[in-house]
UniProtKB/TrEMBL annotation:
<dbReference type="InterPro" id="IPR022676">
    <property type="entry name" value="NMT_N"/>
</dbReference>
<feature type="compositionally biased region" description="Polar residues">
    <location>
        <begin position="7"/>
        <end position="26"/>
    </location>
</feature>
<feature type="domain" description="Glycylpeptide N-tetradecanoyltransferase N-terminal">
    <location>
        <begin position="71"/>
        <end position="134"/>
    </location>
</feature>
<protein>
    <recommendedName>
        <fullName>glycylpeptide N-tetradecanoyltransferase</fullName>
        <ecNumber>2.3.1.97</ecNumber>
    </recommendedName>
</protein>
<feature type="transmembrane region" description="Helical">
    <location>
        <begin position="132"/>
        <end position="152"/>
    </location>
</feature>
<keyword id="KW-0012">Acyltransferase</keyword>
<dbReference type="Pfam" id="PF01233">
    <property type="entry name" value="NMT"/>
</dbReference>
<dbReference type="GO" id="GO:0004379">
    <property type="term" value="F:glycylpeptide N-tetradecanoyltransferase activity"/>
</dbReference>
<keyword id="KW-0472">Membrane</keyword>
<feature type="region of interest" description="Disordered">
    <location>
        <begin position="1"/>
        <end position="26"/>
    </location>
</feature>
<comment type="similarity">
    <text>Belongs to the NMT family.</text>
</comment>
<dbReference type="InterPro" id="IPR000903">
    <property type="entry name" value="NMT"/>
</dbReference>
<keyword id="KW-0812">Transmembrane</keyword>
<dbReference type="InterPro" id="IPR016181">
    <property type="entry name" value="Acyl_CoA_acyltransferase"/>
</dbReference>
<keyword id="KW-1133">Transmembrane helix</keyword>
<keyword id="KW-0808">Transferase</keyword>
Length: 166
């Protein structure tokens, strides 16, 4: 009988050992999956229709030692920069931002909260508290004294809301 009990006991699988093996197997599979996804995401093989038209370094330039060091485009002299704002359709207007104003800060806050996303997966949204953003606006208001012409808003006059903030 002892033989029967001992042999039947050896046929029973240890549940802890089985779960450990499953965890290791799952871990290996996830690592292999991650490596495969990384290898398939080689940016050199992908087309970047927008970025290929922009004055930025290109993936095809990687490793090309014949390219000169320095800026891609030389800075434009201030005398050649357009001094007047571009003409906008009649429903839009350029306005300056007084970042010390609570009303302007609220407009910018709503625009960023509803539209600003840091990544393509739409996971990292602008989600600061109003009090944090108000403090930031107050700081920008102090820093922007004498430089208000560089902080611009594009307003949709028919909406009476902020469309662009720079």
């Amino acid at each position: 009988m002892a033989d029967k009990d001992s042999s039947s006991g050896s046929n029973i699988e240890n549940p802890d050992q089985n779960s450990d093996e499953n965890a290791v197997s799952s871990y290996k599979a996830s690592i292999e999956n991650l490596v495969q996804r990384f290898q398939n995401s080689n940016p050199l093989d992908q087309k970047h229709k927008f970025w290929e038209t922009q004055p930025v370094g290109q993936f095809t330039d990687v490793g090309n030692s014949g390219l000169p060091e320095g800026p891609i485009e030389l800075p434009t002299p201030l005398s050649e920069v357009k001094q007047e704002p571009y003409n906008l359709p009649s429903l839009y207007e350029w306005t300056t931002c007084d970042m010390g104003s609570d009303e302007i800060c609220d407009e910018v806050y709503v625009l960023l909260r509803n539209n600003y996303v840091k990544d393509d997966d739409n996971m990292f949204r602008f989600n600061y508290s109003r009090s944090f953003f108000s403090g930031l606006c107050a700081l920008l208001g102090i820093l922007a004294v004498g430089m208000l012409e560089f902080v611009l808003r594009l307003r949709g006059s028919w909406l009476l809301s902020l469309v662009v903030f720079r």
